[in-house]
Amino acid sequence: MKHSIKKLVAGTALALGALGAFAADPIKIGSVLSVTGPAAFLGDPELKTLQLYVDDLNKKGGVLGRPLQLVHYDDGSDANKANGFTKRLIEDDKVDVLVGGTTTGATMSSVPLAEKAGIPFISLAGAVVIIEPVKKWVFKTPHTDRMAAEKVFEDMKKRGLTKVALLSETSGFGASGKKETEAVAGKYGITLVANETYGPKDTDMSPQLTKIKTTPGVQAVFVFGLGQGPAIVTKNYKQLGITLPLYQSHGVASDEFLKLAGPAAEGVRLPSPAQLIPEKLPANDPQKPIVTAYDKAYKAAYKTDVSTFGGYAYDGLMLAVDAIKRAGSTDKAKVRDALEATKGFVATSGTFNMSPTDHMGLDLSAFRLLEVKGGDWTIVQ
Which N-terminal stretch is annotated as signal sequence (predicted)? Predict the structure, then answer.
């Protein structure tokens, strides 16, 4: 008996020694991400980013003298599973803040739980419905689908393109994108002369594109989706010999899109955060040091290209850490209030200025308009 107690004491001493300077309880960051399934190309870099920077912050002494602990679950790109895991994070794991929700569907299934529990929740998904109407405990880091449509229409207007065909995915992101695109078109003098959809698992969009091709007067095509779908559309576009200007949403703002679409992507334009083009930003751009450092750290750790989706996770974690520091505690109400009061916070997605009426805090200047030239991204001036 004495022997086993000795062993237990020794083991505990070792464990405490391993924690080093940290005597305090950890600050728990809870996360439900789509690390597998159709949205894995979003969720995988998000998880890698959170792991990378939680480790990095701990090496630098943690936050408020406490270590950070990442508690994460993979929802397999299933919104129903996201709900169950969020419940577990809140009730069993007793996390201090939630950073996650890879997709709009997963986020919206978790929102009521965060609201009811009174826990700050920073979503990494795109749709405007996440923050409109404002929900007390919910914030988000990516630009909204409405902003993406406005950035695209701004450019179309400059080019004198007024008759546009919309092709959107029937997923949460695509459906919301469709709704927001329809809502803001008139503001920019744009008429949607064709309005087609495709399913997230469709492997050929030629029928929809053939309809668009034969629509009288169409001057440009705008695709709203994420994952492999938009790349398939881009390839089909080329195969059908359509030469109209082709625009995509920020749902494909990733080097993965260039790989999937190949040479067919030439000339495609889309709105994107600065994260895709760190080396192309002017020297005086306030985001340049942030996106360059993230690009370097991520590539060094994982030997792979960064994506804007990983950037959304970086922003979510850093906003949470900044709010905890300003609140001086992990008291959930104080952290929530600090998040809402975030001003001038420069991150990978832009400069965040939140308020009681805006739980995202980004404006159109946070988007860069990019064009694919020679198989690489270029900034449209």
Answer: 1-23
Phi, psi (degrees; rounded to nearest 5) at 137: -105, 0
- Radius of gyration of the chain, Cα coordinates, nearest whole angstrom: 22
Q: What contacts 194, CB < 8 A, 6 or more positions away?
A: 165, 166, 211, 212, 215, 218
Q: What is the residue range of 137's domain?
A: 6-143+291-364
Exposure on the CB side of residue 354, measured as CA atoms within 13 A: 24
CA-CA-CA-CA torsion for 369, 373, 378, 381, nearest 10 degrees? -60
Peptide bond into 133 cis (omega under 30): yes
Nearest to 140 by CA among 150, 151, 129, 149: 129
| Beta-bridge partners for 197 | 168
- The tally of domains found in the chain comes to 2
Half-sphere exposure of 13 (CA within 13 A, CB side): 6
- The verdict on 200 and 109 lying in the same domain is no
DSSP state of 142: S
Whether 285 maps to a domain, the answer reads no
